[in-house]
Amino acid sequence: MSHSPVSDLVLRDPAVAEARHAIDQDPTRPAKGYAAAMDRIRIRGGHRLDGTIPIGGAKNAALTLMPAALLTDQPLTLTNVPRLADIDSMIALLSQLGVGVNANLDVAAPDRRLTLHARAVACATAPYDIVRKMRASVLVLGPLLARHGHARVSQPGGCAIGTRPVDLHLKAMEALGATITLEGGYIEARAPSGGLKGADIVFPTVTVGGTENALMAAVLADGETLIENAAREPEITDLATCLNAMGARIEGLGTNTLRVRGVPRLHAATHAIVADRIETGTYAVAAAITRGRLHLQGTRRGLFEAVIDHLQEAGVAIASTETGVLVDARDHELRGVDVMTKPYPGFPTDMQAQWMALMSTASGAAMITESIFENRFMHVPELARMGADINIHGGSAIVRGRRRLSGAQVMATDLRASVCLVLAGLAAEGETIVNRVYHLDRGYETVEARLAACGAEINRLRG
Ligand code: EPZ
User: Which residues line ligand 1 (CB under 6 A)?
Assistant: First the structure.
């Protein structure tokens, strides 16, 4: 009997054909074609993790610190830069705007640094094909308006987790004197001829990106700006710290009221990116879900207290060390603990999927309420394929923990859902294959290598 080449067999496999079709429909799929898009991660679960995981710089801090380079004609150097697909996308966007980039981001490089030098803004357009892949591109709006007086940014569409409008960003820019028009799917923003003017900005709901755009626009505005109901995420504080190092005058860091006194220009600075609190929380859950122990290096408990509180309530031991945080769940029977996602310092929405994976293996029930995004339960049907017992009621999910999940083929739908499925695979009996892991590569650096180094049986299957 003649055997078709594997490729034909693979192509005829309905699951692969379905995956290819789904990828064609996914605007965020990587540009480098199917190969990366078809990468999968295979896990054989049941191994307790034990070891050390280095925590990198925060993705969501880097994605706002990088556009801040547009605010000055002097170089901004960032260190502790994570090696992620989203960072590459932001580099591509800033390069298109005319920013000089000098990057030493080799995975092995001990000191990952990125120098961005916007001597002049050559172009003020953030194009559709970049913005559709990475919503954080909208964070060039404030800096371009402040420095250049004009910005043309493709309107970010919705994404898997929600419609995610940017109306509050635009209202903040208008409060500072900008005129905003929407045409052809683009946001056209123009500052008055004399530049932006300080103003009082009150956000009706807490918005991380809105606060970041408002802050970056206000630092060069003429006069004083008060930003009330500002987001307090550590990434905002990190941005304000960096802007102050560049010569800005921002007060109220870490509070929900930021006072900005505009200055005529900013100067060069070097800034170390804050540790990634979501990466920290994710690996803390990896220790807990495998009933193992991990030392998370290069981070600190103050960045993720709400997650620590819930882990301790569930029965996990957490301790600060000289260089990080030790998470120990060895021989611990974990209990179900309810959680409701909230803006910082509440429990982060970016940890909700990971928490659901953990609760799927704890004893007892847990209610998980997602209050930030309207569609952030897409990991539920995938976890159910692994035997998790989860019922959704509107914005809440009731999870009834099972001692053992079972491995299965599952599909990643967004960044945090994909890592949730990897975590579940670590705890499941048998083999789990996570498809469409390009989502994972957007926010987690060499995740399979880090987990394998701590005892996980995990590897990547190339596309
Ligand atoms: C940031 O997104 C993060 N992304 C998200 O992380 C994170 O989930 C989110 O903050 C909440 O913490 C980056 O920092 C790059 P928001 P952002 O503006 O700024 C609504 C990840 O996995 N809203 O705080 O877009 C919005 O729809 C990503 O790393 C408006 O209605 O979030 C949402 O319901 C996912 N109008 C809520 O506010 C606006 O103008 C919070 O959104 C802006 C937001």
Answer: 60, 63, 136, 162, 164-169, 205, 207-210, 349-350, 372-373, 415-416, 443
Lowest mean pLDDT segment, chosen from 14-23, 48-57, 163-172: 14-23
Q: Which residues contact 203 (CB under 8 A, 6 or more apart)?
A: 168, 172, 210, 211, 214, 227, 228, 229, 230, 231
Q: Which of 439, 393, 444 is nearest to 413 (CA)?
A: 439
Q: What is the mean pLDDT of residues 189-204?
A: 98
CA of 349, closest atom in ligand 1? 8
Of 324, 331, 332, 385, nearest to 357 by C-alpha is 385
Told to judge if 159 belongs to the known catalytic residues of this protein, a careful annotator would answer yes
Placement of tokens 């993705």 in the chain: 59
Q: From the alpha carbon of 170, which atom of ligand 1 is closest?
A: 40
pLDDT for residue 17 is more than 90: no
Query: Which residue's structure tokens are 């099972």?
Result: 402
Taking residues 53-78, report their average pLDDT. 98
Nearest partner of 239 among 80, 78, 61, judged by Cα: 61
